Amino acid sequence: MSKFLLIESGTNVCSVAISADGKVIGLKESADEKAHASQLTQFIDQLTKETGISISQLDAIVVSKGPGSYTGLRIGVSAAKGICYAAEKPLISISSLDSMVYGASELYKSMIEKNSIDFYCPMIDARRMEVYTALYDKTFSKIRETEAQVVDETTFSDVLENKKILFFGNGAIKCRETINHSNAFFVDNFYPSAQFMISLAIKAAIDKTFEDIAYFEPYYLKDFVATVSQKNLIPGLLKR
Prior knowledge:
Layout: E1 3-8, E2 14-20, E3 23-30, H1 35-51, E4 60-66, H2 70-87, E5 91-95, H3 96-107, H4 109-114, E6 119-125, E7 130-137, E8 142-150, H5 157-160, E9 165-168, E10 184-186, H6 198-207
Parallel strand pairs: 1-4, 4-5, 6-9, 9-10
Antiparallel strand pairs: 1-2, 2-3, 6-7, 7-8
Helix pairs in contact: 1-2
């Protein structure tokens, strides 16, 4: 069975894991501000030492491809590609939303069965009332494609009339009051994690679905828009 280094950096949580034989044998995570830039490479170094699995022993490097945070994804992908180049390892990319569904299906298995949930709806915060989301059935097949969606009272209303949906992720938290329906179920404190990527990574390795390291880019879904802080601007600059 394959040994993987797995990196999930698409949200505010920086998550790194090493797996062997389909199981997590080491996991480091942090939600600290700027953790991706300051801690990701440290986590990788710590995990190789703690697990006794060196980079040379890995079968592939696995990274989240998005959608999600522009900065977080770039940091994660850059680290993964750098390791692949240096160690001559293949690169596997995993959809952040796909791995979230796999994770939620395990974490909330009893709740899902108890409430006869029909669909999974992972949501990643995209600021304001917008989320990155998709809709999956219980076989993990995508029935609505990934999109950046502005959430209002009508969001998923056509589906909720007849089906029960489980909403989760940091984007779902802000939608709880807006998507107000008896068939809408929400869970708190769920975030993407590198450990949720293992099953998908194993399948990709078996199928030899590897990325071209030279040309691979994250799936941003939206263009990056830089903003300027108003705190330290030179007096009078805004008046020009």
